[in-house]
Specification:
Elements lengths: L4 H10 L1 H27 L3
Helix pairs in contact: 1-2
Length: 45
């Protein structure tokens, strides 16, 4: 199963459900990263 970047982009723009799913998954990843970085910053050394 091989999908080119152009094909993936077309699916992303054409399918609202897939676009929402991808956006929310990315938001979860960013939120996790921010949380982990914040914890590391405020830990006592």
């Amino acid at each position: 199963f091989s999908v080119s970047l152009d094909e993936a982009r077309d699916v992303f723009y054409d399918d609202v459900r897939k676009r929402i799913d991808i956006t929310l998954k990315n938001a979860d990843s960013v939120a996790l990263l921010v949380t982990l970085l914040g914890r590391e910053r405020f830990m006592t050394r």
